[in-house]
Amino acid sequence: MRHNRGVSPTRYSTGARRARSTPVDAACAAAVEEAKAAADEMAWPGKAGGHIGLRAEGDRVVTHFFECLDLAYRGWRWSVTVARASRAKSVTISEVTLLPGEDALLAPQWVPWIERLRPGDLGPGDLLPTPADDVRLAPGFTETTNAADRQQLWELGLGRPRVLSAAGRDDAAERWYESPAGPASPIAQAAPARCATCGFLVPLAGSLRQLFGVCANEYAPDDGKVVSVDHGCGAHSEAVALPPVVETTPPIVDEWVYDTMRPSGADDEEALGHS
Questions:
Q1: pLDDT tens readout for residues 151-168
Q2: Which of 150, 212, 225, 247 has the fewest CB atoms within 10 Å, i.e. the most exposed one?
Q3: Is 140 in the same domain as 202?
Q4: CA 99, 103, 109 angle in degrees (round to 5)?
Q5: pLDDT (0 to 100) of residue 145
Q6: pLDDT value, residue 10
Q7: Is residue 267 part of a domain?
Q8: Is 261 helix (H, G, I), strand (E, B) or coil?
């Protein structure tokens, strides 16, 4: 039987609101053995640990806490709530439950699968439904520019049901620009020129054309990928080859054998001195 825990009344004095502290019922506080027996029954085949405290929940309602000895619930505690009816002497067990303590091991907070999904998680055969209210998409007729196009393409069923919305384009542009295919990557910083002047850049269509294109150079690291126009790499179409490095052979010094050489003209001066 569950007991509806009482709420302490509130006193009002000179306009100030003060909550009266709930007194601890002496009979309920003394019912430690009854509460321990209820905790042992719930913990069967194990037993509850020692009494670690109590708390007044309301008038004649007290909760006793006991240690949990189960190794799978370290830091948890058995909570046994006892109550006493008005003018009654006996105490009854209202509720027994297992509650986490301050150092209890808890499961991580639940995160919906759509928030846990990361790029690359989708594999062959997997389906990823898109919500009907996805802000990244807009009705397909917004892709056309005038009423004639809407009538010819959309009403005949030849258009796409949904296309990228302005928010969807902004999200994609920000994600691509901050990726390794943007201007801040190390390979772009060391590039001789930007993709905007590269002949291998295939610009995208629509408004994204102003900032992005697809690399079509099979030797570039971003071949077949979307790159920003201020990205770059060493495979730029106008990259100039560096002059070949000419290696010079260092001189060979023979340190073991040497010849003594006379200065030029020393023989003539010596001959004049003897004449």
A1: 445 444 456 788 888 898
A2: 247
A3: no
A4: 70
A5: 57
A6: 34
A7: no
A8: coil
- For the cut 50, the answer to whether the pLDDT of residue 72 exceeds it is yes
Domain count, the chain: 3
Beta bridge partners of 68: 48
Residue 75 resides in a domain: yes
Q: Are residues 14 and 80 in the same domain?
A: yes
Asked if the structure places residue 41 within a domain, the reply is: yes
The domain of 188 spans: 178-228
171 falls within a domain: no
Residue at 182: amino acid letter: G
Rounded (to 5) percent helix, strand, coil in the chain: 25, 20, 55
CA-closest candidate to residue 195, choices 224, 230, 221, 226? 230
**Comparing C-alpha atoms, which of 165, 215, 169 is closest to residue 188?**
215
Residue 161 shares a structural domain with residue 183: no
Closest CA to 5 of 58, 54, 56: 58
Contact 140, 160 (CB under 8 A): yes
